[in-house]
Write a sequence for this structure.
């Protein structure tokens, strides 16, 4: 009986995982990432243009490719529920601009490189899938970069990037949760801190 129950639970878990994966067109998701990385690497990183122009082009690319409203709510965690509409707007706006600028500079690490696609991996989150890529580096092992892609109403967006096992969204969530918990100013203080970081990043 115990063996039958264990097998049944395992089978149901497998069905759930398959259904969650089936809700997502993995081929279309992979093509979306291929198009995004091709534009980011070939038309921006490797272009013979000033860094300011690269940042401008990346802002346009990533603003369309990343679901920063979805990511922003995730990284703010439970604090999103207690935030006022004004705090939410200020946080999302500042978070969006800071992360687009930060990620555009991270992409510079892949100058002259190409993303090699390694298929997709199921996600237990409905309407999401991981697109697996590696980037051959000059030294050492290739860098592993996973893209969590979310589909909504036929539109594909990136909701997280996992570089060498480190989730950028999860790292931000842990950092922001700790900041709010340990700072008397709470969410307002976090927003002010992010604005200052954005100002410094733009000045570089």
């Amino acid at each position: 009986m115990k063996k039958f129950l264990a097998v049944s639970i395992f089978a149901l878990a497998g069905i759930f995982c398959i259904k969650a994966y089936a809700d997502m067109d993995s081929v279309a998701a992979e093509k979306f990432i291929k198009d995004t990385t091709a534009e980011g690497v070939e038309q921006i990183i490797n272009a013979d243009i000033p860094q300011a122009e690269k940042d401008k082009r990346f802002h346009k690319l990533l603003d369309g490719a990343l679901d920063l409203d979805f990511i922003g709510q995730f990284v703010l965690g439970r604090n999103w529920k207690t935030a006022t509409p004004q705090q939410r707007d200020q946080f999302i706006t500042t978070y969006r601009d800071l992360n687009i600028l930060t990620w555009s500079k991270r992409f510079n690490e892949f100058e002259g490189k190409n993303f090699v696609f390694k298929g997709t991996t199921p996600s237990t989150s409905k309407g999401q899938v991981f697109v697996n890529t590696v980037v051959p580096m000059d030294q050492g092992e290739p860098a592993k970069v996973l893209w969590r892609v979310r589909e909504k109403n036929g539109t594909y967006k990136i909701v997280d990037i996992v570089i060498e096992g480190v989730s950028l969204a999860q790292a931000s969530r842990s950092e922001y949760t700790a900041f709010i918990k340990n700072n008397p100013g709470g969410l307002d203080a976090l927003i002010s801190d992010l604005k200052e970081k954005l100002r410094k990043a733009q000045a570089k």
About this structure: Confidence is low (pLDDT under 50) at residues 1-22. The chain is about 60% helix and 20% strand. Helices lie at 2-22, 26-45, 51-65, 68-76, 79-82, 85-107, 168-182, 186-203. The chain has one domain: 2-203.
